[in-house]
Amino acid sequence: MGGGLAALMATIRVAEAGVPVELFSIVPVKRSHSVCAQGGINAAKNQKGEGDTTQKHFDDTIYGGDFLANQPLVKRMCEAAPGIIDLLDRMGVTFNRTPEGLLDYRRFGGTLYHRTAFAGATTGQQLLYALDEQVRRHESEGRVTKREGWTFLSAVIDDAGVGRGICAMDLRSMELKTFVADAVIFCTGGIGAIFGRSTNSVVCTGRRSPLFCSRALTMQTANSFKFIRRPSLVKTSCG
User: Fold this and answer.
1) Helix (H, G, I), strand (E, B), or coil: what is residue 158?
2) SS3 for 174?
3) I need a surface site. Which of 26, 45, 78, 175 has the fewest CB within 10 A?
4) DSSP designation for 103
5) How far apart are CA 126 and CA 120, in angstroms?
6) Which helix (H) or strand (E) holds 153?
7) Where are the beta strands (DSSP E) in 3-149?
8) C-alpha closest to that of 184 among 160, 207, 217
C-alpha cells in the first residue's frame, strides 16, 4: 500500500526475489508526496576528504533527532547509506556532479560535513522517477501489477491475528474488492493534513493510521514530525 519512495523500493526488492506484487496508490505514483523532497539524501562517502565516517553520520542523526530515534535502526541506515547512493546512481538518478564527473555532495540540514547527494532542487522527483522506471520494468515482465487510484479500506486479518490481504476501493468505478496476499507492506505516508497549515500534499491525511489501530495491529517506524521555521517577509507601506 502506497506509491512513494518507500513503497516503490519495497516493490522492487520483493519483485527481485521473484514474488508477484500488487501495488496500490491513491494517486499516480509520480504524484506521491515523495516528489516534494528537495534537499538531498545523506551518506558518509567522505568525497571531500573531510574525515567523515558512518559513525559520525550516526552521531549527527541521533543528536539531530533529540535521541528519540531507534538507534540500532539508525546505525544500520547510516552504514547502508553509501551503498544506497551508488545503487540509486546506477538506477539513473541524475545527481549533481563535480567538474571531474564524480557525485557532488553539499552540507545540508545542519550536517558537519559535505555528505548530502542532491539533484538540484528536485531530488525527490528524480528519485521517484528513477524508482518508478524500475517498477515499470518489473511490471512489463509480469511481476508487478500497479493499481493507481485505489484507496485502502481495511486489512484482512485471520483468527490468529495474521494479515492475509486488504480490502480496497477503486475511486474511478467505486468498486470494492478484497485482495488476498501472503504479506502486506504499508507505506502510506505522513499525516500532515491534521494541521491547519502544512507543506504536505493533500493526500497526506493519515487516515490509514487509525484503521491500523482499530484492528489492533502493531505499528513500527512511525514517522515523527519535524517543524521547520522559515523567515517571512512582511511588506508594509506608509501613507
Assistant:
1) coil
2) coil
3) 175
4) B
5) 9
6) strand 150-157
7) 21-25, 41-42, 105-106, 116-117, 144-148
8) 217
- CA atoms in the 13 A half-sphere facing the CB of 122: 8
Residue 238 confidence (pLDDT)? 41
List b or e across 91-126, with b for residues whose CB sees 16 or more CB atoms inside 10 angstroms: eebebeeeeeeebbbeebeebebbbbbbbeebbbbb
The amino acid occupying position 120 is G
pLDDT, one tens digit for every residue, the chain (239 residues): 899 999 999 999 999 999 999 999 999 999 998 888 888 999 999 988 999 999 999 999 998 888 988 899 999 999 999 999 999 999 999 999 999 999 999 998 778 899 999 999 999 999 999 999 999 999 999 999 999 999 989 888 888 888 899 999 999 999 999 999 998 888 887 777 777 777 788 888 777 766 666 665 666 656 555 555 554 444 444 43
Alpha-helical regions (H) of 92-182:
123-140
DSSP 197: S
How far is Cα of residue 139 from the mean position of the Cα atoms in its chain?
Answer: 20
Q: Say how many C-beta atoms besides its own lie within 10 A of residue 207's C-beta.
A: 14
DSSP 166: E
**Separation between Cα atoms, residue 93 and residue 53, nearest integer Å:** 24
> Nearest Cα to 201, choosing from 29, 22, 24, 9?
29
Residue matched to cell numbers 509480469? 142
What DSSP state is assigned to residue 76?
Answer: H
Question: Which three cell numbers, joined as nine digits, stand for 4?
Answer: 512513494
- pTM for this predicted structure: 0.85
As a whole number of angstroms, the distance between CA 113 and CA 61 comes to: 12
